[in-house]
# Entry
Amino acid sequence: MERTDRTALCPGTFDPVTYGHLDIIRRASVMFDEVIVSVVNLPWRKGKTLFSAEQRVTFLQNATEELGNVRIATFSNLLVEFAREQGAIAVVKGLRAISDFEYELEMHQLNRRQAPEIESVYLMSSPKYSFISSSGVKELATFGGEIGDLVPDEVAEQLKERLGR
Ligand code: PNS
# Structure
């Protein structure tokens, strides 16, 4: 049987990356030959991001450097178009709670309508990370909360510098 490399995308805004994202990326990297962490680069989408696309990519590169089959890219077109351009067969996302499910179900249906050949794969968040969100981490950083166990060190430092009061 002919064997082809199986590539998956792990897409998101990653503003900034958290240990919850990194857990999903690591687990996806075990399941697929190549994982492309795909960073949304649309300044006007969902309001302005705290970190530039370049900064979000750098955080991800530093945090995944020991994962040999993971690379980081940005995209600003439809997710499924980007998946086709990259030859990806799947999109992998994490699910934390029922609240994620509703949003992800909608995204899944939109994506499937556009590209039925690209499968969506959902990994349940590890309990340890099931409460972490980028927005929650930013909120904590703004008010001086402890974030050292939620994001990589350089991200925590940058958050404190940018948001700390
Ligand atoms: O969780 P996020 O950061 O909102 O996820 C972003 C993304 C692109 C994975 C999600 O919005 C999605 O699946 N969108 C499908 C529709 C699409 O392709 N939009 C264009 C985004 S550049």
